[in-house]
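Second attempt. The first submission of OmpA family protein had a stray character pasted in from the spreadsheet, which I only caught after the job came back as garbage. Lesson logged: always re-copy from the clean sequence file. Corrected sequence (267 aa) follows.
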Amino acid sequence: MSRLTYGLLLSSLVLAGCASHPNSDTALQQAGSDFQKVKEDSNVLRIAPKDVIRAGESLARADRLSSYWGSGGDVVHYAYLSQRYSAIAREHTELVLNEERAAKLELERQRLQLALREAKLLSVQQQGKWLEEQIASLTTTQTDRGLVMTLGDVLFDTGQAELKNSANRTVLKIVQFLQLNPKRVVRIEGYTDSTGGEQENLKLSRDRAQAVADVLVDLGIDDKRIQVEGYGDQYPVEVNASERGRAQNRRVEIVFSDDKGQLGAAR
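This time the job returned cleanly.
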């Protein structure tokens, strides 16, 4: 073999080894994007710091290797490891957050149940007086559908159906009222403003009404005494042109039956 032929062969082998992996740049960019998201998430940093560190270390190694010819395969490998650590960090965080939310909800329900048991210790005379005060304090309106109590959107975070802790005192009054009036039933109706799509609003309105119903059931009210309806952005009480009007339209209404259990007609 001539020196020229040998030189050409050696050059071709070196160039082949130096060729970059076609997917290395894409893999590195995606890994960097994923790492940036978990690095900026305070919950992820609190719950899964070790996985975030591993993701950063793998990404840094992939980045260093990207400057070397012929390291495309290694770049893809370490970029993949970085992405997996980022994904594990997110999954671990979501699991822990769900557990924390469940524990918080359970603790709040136990507190409400304790308050309910304490209220039951009142004498019959005290209960009668308490009932009169609670009926007077409930923000209710007599309509052709019956006695209606309106819960404003301050009891929910924007776009969410989970009841805020500030709703508990109001819900507790409703529970006690229904326990002292065992023949009464309620229809819980959810409403939204006009923001969002029709189906989205219908689902959100029903989910909010169901959230109130779920708490009533958790605190001992028979679910057979509860009806749930969602009307979306139908039946606004104010125009949706202003934030004040939209806030008034985002509501849950509780319709009480008469003392014989007869509810007025639904909408």
